[in-house]
Amino acid sequence: MDVPVLETERLILRGHRAEDFPAYAAMWADPAVTRFIGGMPLTEEEAWAKFMRIFGHWALAGYGFWSVHETGGPRVGEVGFLDARRDISPSMHGIPEVGWAFAKAAQGKGYATEAVRAALAWGEQCFGQTRFACIIAPQNAASLNVAAKTGFREVARTTYKGDPTVMLYREP
User: Fold this and answer.
1) Which of 79, 77, 61, 60 is nearest to 69 (CA)?
2) Pick from 135, 127, 140: nearest CA to 154
3) If DSSP states are collapsed to H, E and C, what string results for 62-107?
């Protein structure tokens, strides 16, 4: 499947490529990135498995994560949709889950909000008028702010893999 290219004022969202892996692995090895997403930096092996999962999502589901780049510049993060089949209550089964992560150097610039808005606009065309979900660690104020700015509202406080988690929905 060809991954659609999305463009915003400052960003290009495109399919991941093999040459993106070094920046991808570096981002996921940074404790500043992973402290609220799984809690532990990823090894190169773990990052490779996560990277390969992106291609499977696009191939099997017709949606997935984009590699986010500054226009004419470096990779700064990723945003997209996934079907993680999470063992979480309340269940998110059948609800497109939105996720994002950005390199430390790209944080605080509004890139996440800009990229999530672009992804959601594409998602509304792909999935139709539907509810979207995301989960965020309660102490991750920056991501909770991005979620609020893009229309998500808290629906539950739960746990995921033993960690406190906020579940949010964005209604159509």
Assistant:
1) 77
2) 135
3) CCCEEEEEECCCCEEEEEEEECCCCCCCCCCCCCCEEEEEECHHHC
Can you tell me the distance from the alpha carbon of 63 to that of 22, in angstroms, rounded to the nearest whole number? 23
SS3 46: helix
Q: How far apart are CA 9 and CA 102, in angstroms?
A: 17
**Six token digits for residue 109:** 């610039």
Q: Residue 156: what residue type?
A: A
Q: Amino acid identity, residue 73?
A: G
Contact in structure between 109 and 73 (CB atoms under 8 Å): no
For residues 157-164, average pLDDT? 95
3-class secondary structure, 111: helix
Measuring CA to CA, which residue among 144, 132, 134 is closest to residue 170? 132
Q: Is the torsion defined by CA of 28, 58, 49, 140 positive or negative? A: positive
pTM over 0.70: yes
Q: What single-letter DSSP state applies at residue 43? A: P
pLDDT digits (tens, 9 = 90+) for 15-34: 999 999 999 999 999 999 99
